[in-house]
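Two entries, shown back to back:
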Amino acid sequence: MTETALTWHRLPSRVLVLRILEVIKSFAIPIVLLFVLNNDWDSTFGIIIRVGILLFLLLDIVQKFFGWLNFRYALDEKTVYVIEGNWLKKEKSLPLYKIQSVHSNSPFLYRLLGVVELTFDTNANSDDASFKLAGVFPTEAKRLEEILEQVRHRKQSGVTVDDSEESDETPAQAAPVPSRLLYALSTREIVLASITSLSVFAIFPVASTVISSIDDFINLDGAFNQVEDYVVHASIIAIGLLVIGVLMVSIVIGMVINFLKYGNFRLERRGERIRVEKGLLNRSAKEIPYEKIQAIRIKETFIRRWFHIVGVELVAAGTMDELKDESSTILPFVRRDRAMQVLREHFTHFTWSDELHRLPRRALGIKLLRISWFGFIISGLVLYFFRDYAWWLLLLWAIIIGGRVLSFVTTKYVRADQFIQLRTGAFNVRSFLTDKPRIEQIQVKQSLLQRRFGLCTVQFSTRGGFLSVETIDDIPKEEADAMLNWFSRYTVQEDMKTPG
């Protein structure tokens, strides 16, 4: 690498301030414990511990300083070069044409100091598949994204770097890729999602944890006795109003969290890529190339199904470390009809079917006959240790049996042309759609009980960041055999156009 032939750039000095603040944050708890709450310099052991903490803090700050000082990056027409390292320098290069997407992240401190974190992703699964610029000015981030847009433009038009230099059109003259807004969350949708989320009940375990932590330092037995006396002597109306008030506070907290997380949510299409932007305090943006989309999932929780609210995720091949969850959410909570409208209009390479096949009636029998080990274990424990509360087992078994009946009613499937579409679940339901070229493998399993009923379990694997597996239980064996036969009959054209 010839450094003199390139224009090298450093990260802004304020990035060093961010890294030092992150170091101090990581040492905040031991510093508070040892220097504020228990500032004991009399014992030798206490002095050694405190001096050791200060030395580690200083060493970490020095390491961050040299990491910032040594980091440099440069670009030419074909490659991005990076020099990094704390004590030992490491050089690496990445061809620009391999960069599939750019992900930006702006936590609150980054936005406060006016910098953006960029991650360039090749969608490969190696350690060097991506690299970060952990803090650049927005103007520099925009310049880098424009350079990558020009590279993509040349790649899609089949123009090499040499050809572009010989032609009249220079990279700076390349037309920018237009951005099209596909969906933006409204305030009403965020409020409704907060109300219909089960997180409204999270205040009870959180409050219990906080009270338990406070009780370790301050004796709250007296306060607990007063609360107990109030609950015992209070009327049902007063207790009901108290519970409603706590739930309302929980809903308000959930709204604040959702607004901070999903405020200014935008789903856009930029050329052949999907871009998702979200967040108020911590602003983030990620991109997914269309060609990397392997499947689409639609998730419906039990409560949100009543309001026809769904979440939409994409299963994308070769996701980077920060997106190791095999799916990426593009619509967190949207009415089902609006979600299907977006999918049908802007994801036209996936065809949704409105008519799906139900499971045969014998599938309900096999679901009810399966042993619920969870139910039997809980029943045994209750009957042995808490016999006075045995009537609660009726509710437990009603939920178990009701869930299996719901699973039978909900589970549907269809195989139409090149596409497989599944709908599975009981209380929480999810739909899955992919096509034959994107399926990695199909497995058919059959237990002894299923064999007697002529049913099978089928697993579909697609290529996400990890191997993504979808399962449908208790479909007829003849249909499972037909799926295997359908998948095994590839044509030459299908093999050549396999995506990802």
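entry 2 starts here
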Amino acid sequence: MNLNVKIKFIPVILLFLSILLFSSTTIASNNTDTWSQFHKDVANTGFSSGEAPDTGKLLWVSDPIRAIPSSSPVIAEGKVFVKCGVDQVNSMSTTPEELRIVTIDEYTGNIISSDEIGPVTPCWSSLCYDNGKIWYGRADALNGGPMVADGKVFDSDGESHHYYCTDAETEEELWNFTVTGVAIGTPAYYEGKVYLTSGPLFSSPGHVYCVNAENGDELWNQTLPYEAGGSPAVSEGVVYATTYDGNLYALDAEDGSILWSETVPSTDVSSTPAIAYGNVYISGGCPGISTIETYCFNATTHEIVWNTSAEDKIGGWTASVAVADGMIFVGKYAEDDYFGYAGTYALDAYTGDVVWSYPSGGASPAISDGILFTIGADGRVYAFADPEEVLPSVSIKCNMSDLGFGSLASGERSVVHLNITNAGNSNVTISAEPEEGNTQLYNDSLFLGSNFWNQYSQLISSLNTEEVELVLDVPAGYEGELDQAGECLIFWGEEV
């Protein structure tokens, strides 16, 4: 199988040449079902209709990037976005600390970038990707992250008691809404309405609100006996919310009336329910305070279908489970840790039986392109999948940075560097050639390292990156034009 990557030389001014990625890679997988914001979608359902790994085989483990304990990654455009600390952080701290967003290649685990975002409360809220932008919420948000729907960004300011709606393109505030207690959840969007949760921390009462997404007008609110500490989830006209004292509520999405409520035997619940297969899945419990279990309730009869054993300690008060491919995915706390997870579990969605487990990762998993992503107490991101099932046979990627040869004159040499990544599951041999129609300068004077272009051959192993040195060696006495547009170099990848 051959694949070509075309690199195009585009002059900016006379005697200046730049190199720019022209085309890049194959389609990576047929398992596409993007998880670009907290709990999968705008309704916070936590359900992916795509495939999920049926074994605990690791695809990759990231470097220790100080990913925020209990937080969840988001995935879009072949990248994994993770909220991280510059230093080790306390997920429960309300004091802003220096944070950053680390971007990781979805298929290789290689770090693409690390961008500081300044002082932000180090809560376990997720990021949100939409239309080329990453949203990380307000500096004083508390566990509730941003959500983007219908061209609008919805987020909160924690203990200042507000939710906000902002235009996603102009970033102009459209409206804000004041709640009683802490604005603590990630908003959920459903049929033109936004659902919000609040309450005094670890106290009573709690509240669920429904507001018009266009203008922020309150449509209804429902008071609950205790803090609604998690984010709401909405499905088929029902809003599901949890309270920290260990109760699960189903509310009518139209008027807020309580359809049913059930006690989660594990108190201490600030996680978000997941809805799939006619069931509601919820996790609860806190080390040293209450039993740690994961539960499945029938969404219609609200009876418990199954629950894990308290002895197994699967779940937790910050663990929002993910559901896909007939399985639910949840974590297990690290020893004596209120926030960090050191165990990833896949459970049968219908019986609760353990399908597979792995002794690392576990915080609120995310699923995209057939891969399970989760964060461990060690600050690393773990990706689970069988490479043969999720990776293309051949996939060549080039780094996206502009690379300039600089100002050139007769007899001068200029060197630039390009990274080529093989993100496929087969080894690839790379060769190169100038495109037909290029000027004689490129045909006669372009080297890759010490080799003339027609003698270049480089093996790039699966899931590895090689640096290519491009040398343009202008002959002495050269009098040809250096401003000819449209010069191209084609790299060829051949599966070996």
